[in-house]
Amino acid sequence: NKPNVEPKRPPRPIHITPLCKLTPILNNTVSVKWAADYGKGWVVGIWLVEKLSSDQLLERLTSKGKRNADFTRELIKTKLTDDEDGIATTNLKVTVSCPLGKMRMSMPCRPTTCDHLQCFDASLFLMMNEKKPTWTCPVCDSAAKYDDLMIDGYFEEVIKSSELPEEENEIILNQDGSWNPVPKDEEEERKRKEKEEEEKKNAVVLDLSDDDDDAPAAPKPAADAEAAPPPPPAEDLPVLPPPTPAEIECIDIE
After folding, report:
1. Cα-based distances in Å from 55 to 61, 99, 135, 160, 222
2. Distances (CA, A) of 91 to 81, 214, 215
3. Torsion of CA 14, 19, 23, 26, to 10 degrees
4. 37 or 85, which is more confident?
5. CA 228 from centre of chain
6. Which is it for the CA torsion 182, 184, 188, 192, positive or negative?
7. pLDDT tens, 70-98?
């Protein structure tokens, strides 16, 4: 197998039940062949197991109980307090939508081995692993075994709360362990619109087109307009008599 490439034959258990003869009369023999590779040891095992569906696994997960909301609340306080560098974080934005399905979670859970606050939907996670078992946390890509999964009571309360709008999937975690929906900052939106209108008023528009006919004529200076008085009306001009015709002299050359 090439590095960083999904193997053609993943190391998953092989289901050999259809190949077995389920009768006490006949014996079943398993033959194993492998390529010679010196310096490595190999182990082969056969387990009698019961295959469970995702619904059965979800039922077992819910019957196991949930993580207390106070545990997550204390974890939020710990993460938002001063760290070693002296930098304090007053709040933290997280989402209640599942990173797998991009929809609001109905049963938020996360492994007990992970230290992040972001959860994922347990039902969708189990269904995906039923088809392709990877058992990897979709948030941090670390191992997420079934036995380590627990439903988070804090985020379950958030999802069921009437304070969370239906169209909003992001919340803000406060330093005291409480939460609030992401506010719609109308004041900031109003200031942004006013700034855009002010920039439009102060903007200088330049016409870079080559068509001179469409360009408006530049106004004449006021001084030239005052220097050239308007012509007098036609009725005030004096009427001159027509010129007299010139005399023509004819000479007979005979």
Report:
1. 10, 20, 16, 22, 88
2. 10, 58, 57
3. -110
4. 37
5. 69
6. positive
7. 999 999 988 888 665 556 677 888 999 99
Nearest-angstrom CA–CA distance, 102 and 120 = 10
Largest CA distance in the chain: 165
The more confident residue out of 195 and 204 is 195
Beta bridge partners of 151: 66, 109
* Cα–Cα distance for residue pair 243/221, rounded to 1 Å: 42
Other CB atoms closer than 10 Å to residue 137's CB: what's the count? 22
- Estimate the crossing angle of helix 69-79 against helix 153-160, to 10 degrees: 100
CA distances (Å), origin 226, targets 217, 220, 223, 230, 236: 19, 11, 5, 9, 22
Per-residue pLDDT at 107: 94
**157 pLDDT more than 70:** yes
Q: What is the pLDDT of residue 159?
A: 93
Burial group, residue 18, by CB count within 10 angstroms (0-12, 13-18, 19+): exposed
Evaluated on CA atoms 50, 144, 112, 169, the torsion sign reads negative
Q: Using CB atoms within 10 Å of the CB of residue 212, give its burial: 0 to 12 exposed, 13 to 18 middle, 19+ buried.
A: exposed
Count of positions (residues) in the chain: 254
> 46 Cβ partners below 8 Å, 6+ apart?
16, 30
Are 173 and 94 in contact by the 8 Å Cβ rule? The answer is yes
- Rg over alpha carbons for the chain, rounded to the nearest Å, is 44
Q: CA angle at residue 136 from 130 to 140, to 5 degrees? A: 145
Q: For 100-110, what is each residue's pLDDT tens digit?
A: 988 999 999 99
